[in-house]
Amino acid sequence: MSLQPIIDNMPQKASEADVETRLLPHFIRALGFAEDESVPSFDTGAGWVDHATRRNTGDKKFVDSRQGPYLYIEVKGRHRNLTEGHPHYFAAFDQLKGYFEGDNSESVQWGILINSLHAQLFRKHGKTIYPATPCLDCSGIDEIVKTFRERIESPARALTVAIYNNKGGVGKTTTTVNLAAALTLLKKRVLIIDFDPNQQDLGDALNLPPSRGQMMDALTKKADIHDSIIPYEYEFPRAKRKASFDIMLADKSMASDEEFTQDRVHQKLRLNALLGALQPLRQNEYDYIFIDVPPNWQVFSQRALFAADTVLLPAGHDNLHSLQNAGAAITELLPQVQAKRQKLLGDYGPIALPVFLNGLPSKISKSHAQLMHQAIGKVIDKGGASGFDLRPYFYPKWTADRQSLYMRHIRHMAHIASGDFRHVPAAFVFRAVFEQYSNFAKDYFLWD
Ligand SMILES: Nc1ncnc2c1ncn2[C@@H]1O[C@H](COP(=O)(O)OP(=O)(O)OP(=O)(O)O)[C@@H](O)[C@H]1O
Ligand SMILES: [Mg+2]
Q1: What pLDDT score does 63 carry?
Q2: Residue of the CA atom closest to atom 25 of ligand 1
């Protein structure tokens, strides 16, 4: 059944109750949920969301059990403007985020905001929340339902994370390797990708030589992508057990000093080459895919960010440019990528996760901390001047009541640096390093 007539006949100033009664029962059915698979006013553990739905399994009806919700829908009247960037939009998104974080929301994977003029789909992967579509105009409601339904019915298993800062040496490779090791020990399936053919540092960190041609063949679909992936195995010396994650090694044939100069790579590798190649791996095979991105804004970094759901931005407490670059990545580079994804694929593109300080000493002097926060203040002000609120990206615990300057961080540890010399992830070797990265993974990614 088409929902178009319902939208066409909706009062121009439809209230929330109008949207609720006229549209929602049909909208929920069109998304593929029967009446007994949908609960109105569902207790998320952090407030009541307008609807929760979940497919019935066996003879357990969601409407009776109310356990394991899968999708939340928050309804607004037309007086709430849900176009991106509007204060009403931010308020509605914050509300949905709050519900996603409620105690009863662990199983939730999707959320929808709708007011019958606009609708947007959001994804929740573990603890990470990001828009799965742009804000869409309800004048094409049947198309919207089709898009949402396709997404909801086949969620990608993996979260794809690009680790990026166009300032060099801030810990991208170190973070990639140790996060992969920590998540592996936490029983997640992880793939890491060395997308820097000029440095090939990620393979080097694990003592693995770069490939020759394999990645290029996978990206241009000349070969199965599985042929370019190998396992990295670590044997615990005393425990007679192994841990392993997968790696796609850098491809030396793509380095600029080899036959592929930047221009040739540009011609051969379409903007969506990495995203397209990763599709089957994202869908079913991994929980996390981390891409180690080169420190620039050129062919490889652009394709890496295009392939990502989220971007993790390391910076240094004593490295002004890395802090400025993190701000510029959020205000300038990511919007470019999002616009291109929207144009090419109709979806949203990567969002930034809160910036973290890598290699933070356990003590820094008061005067240095002051200088750093002043510099961050300038970055935030600059973002504000172009319409971005960067504060949550630097100070995730900041609220109106409690102006917390807490930043996420990884401590400076000699054991982490020594991993380089050993060519193994320090998180496999040292308990304290594992704990640091597993807490970090819990802050960003894991539900518990
Ligand atoms: N938390 C940490 N504690 C101690 N040493 C660290 C830490 N993080 C990174 N390092 C060290 O800092 C150096 C630079 O780190 P890394 O190679 O990860 O940076 P990068 O951002 O990948 O660099 P590039 O831009 O060249 O790719 C390495 O020698 C690494 O061992
Ligand atoms: Mg690196």
Answers
A1: 95
A2: 168
